[in-house]
């Protein structure tokens, strides 16, 4: 029975998981990303991580496809890393091809946010024609599903909503530009704000204790305006909102939705947009990557199908 390996690379942790052809998941493993990315040769570190993981699994689990999820810009053919700010040594490297040669396994890759979105899309009875995913975690992840597939743009850089310029914003972004909305609308910004204004508050309780603070109400309003801008451009059927920040206790989801809808153009997308809040967990990125790997593998033989868990 073929198995599929999903590797979800995040700025803090890298997660791995296997899935069999019947979409049964097993072997979830999490390790600090710097344990391999901080090495002098990160690609060799990633190879060793994957080899070590596979060596620890049942040898009968034959891997048919490996899928990497990376939080950066990839080439349109999804073979080359173009920009991965926290592992810049991988920039302009044909990572998928090199890993495939080293592991002697088929390797593909995509933006990590597309794997989150793929998992969420498969929770619906049928796939929509147009949907958008916004996942607010350390950064602002944006996934575009257009005409029944993920949209990557002419060069691979589509869906960088977090890097639109915000007027009056002087902050330098890790991407190298000044004024990106992500510098004021992300988990990174929240962490810095909490350190400065609420050092005695556990980060997980930030919205429990300080949701009414003017800076945090403006944070929510800024997020609503940013997302609404994209909705008015793309007019999707579904908007999926998720990520670790939105999953924080007492995050004002109802307020976010109300403000977002107040900015939508009438009659559409105002009257047609369905908003779904994602129940993202630690394993969601891995699971989505496994399912994406199976989709790639099956694309050469038969249509992909998804079995929902009971």
Automatic annotation (TrEMBL):
Return the protein name. Answer: Allose kinase
A Pfam family in this protein? ROK
What SUPFAM superfamilies does UniProt report for this protein, alphabetically?
A: Actin-like ATPase domain
Q: Which residues form a coiled coil?
A: none
InterPro entries hit by this protein: ATPase_NBD, ROK
Q: Name one GO molecular function term.
A: D-allose kinase activity
Q: Does the keyword Transferase apply?
A: yes
As recorded in UniProt, its EC number(s) are: 2.7.1.55
* Superkingdom assignment: Bacteria
Task: Indicate yes or no for the key word Endoplasmic reticulum.
Answer: no
What does the UniProt keyword field contain? Kinase, Transferase
């Amino acid at each position: 029975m073929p198995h599929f390996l999903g590797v979800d690379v995040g700025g803090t942790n890298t997660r791995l998981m296997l899935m069999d052809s019947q979409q049964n998941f097993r072997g979830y493993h999490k390790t600090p990303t710097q344990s391999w990315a901080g090495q002098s040769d990160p690609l060799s570190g990633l190879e060793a991580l994957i080899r070590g993981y596979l060596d620890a699994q049942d040898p009968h689990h034959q891997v048919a496809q490996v899928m990497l999820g990376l939080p950066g810009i990839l080439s349109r053919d999804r073979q080359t890393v173009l920009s991965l700010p926290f592992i810049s040594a991988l920039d302009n490297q044909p990572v998928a091809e090199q890993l495939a040669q080293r592991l002697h396994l088929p390797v593909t890759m995509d933006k990590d946010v597309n794997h989150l979105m793929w998992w969420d899309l498969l929770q619906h009875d049928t796939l929509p024609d147009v949907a958008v995913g916004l996942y607010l975690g350390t950064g602002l992840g944006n996934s575009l599903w257009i005409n029944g597939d993920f949209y990557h743009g002419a060069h691979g850089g589509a869906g960088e909503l977090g890097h639109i310029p915000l007027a009056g914003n002087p902050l330098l972004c890790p991407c190298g530009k000044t004024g990106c909305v992500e510098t004021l609308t992300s988990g990174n910004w929240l962490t810095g704000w909490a350190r400065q204004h609420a050092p005695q508050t556990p980060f997980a309780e930030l919205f429990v204790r300080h949701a009414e603070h003017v800076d945090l109400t403006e944070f929510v309003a800024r997020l609503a305006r940013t997302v609404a801008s994209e909705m008015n451009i793309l007019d999707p059927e579904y908007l999926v909102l998720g990520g670790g920040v939105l999953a924080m206790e007492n995050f004002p989801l109802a307020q976010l939705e109300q403000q977002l809808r107040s900015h939508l153009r009438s009659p559409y997308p105002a009257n047609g947009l369905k908003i779904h809040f994602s129940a993202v967990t630690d394993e969601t990125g891995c699971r989505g990557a496994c399912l994406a790997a199976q989709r790639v593998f099956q694309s050469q033989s038969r249509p992909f199908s998804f079995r929902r868990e009971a």
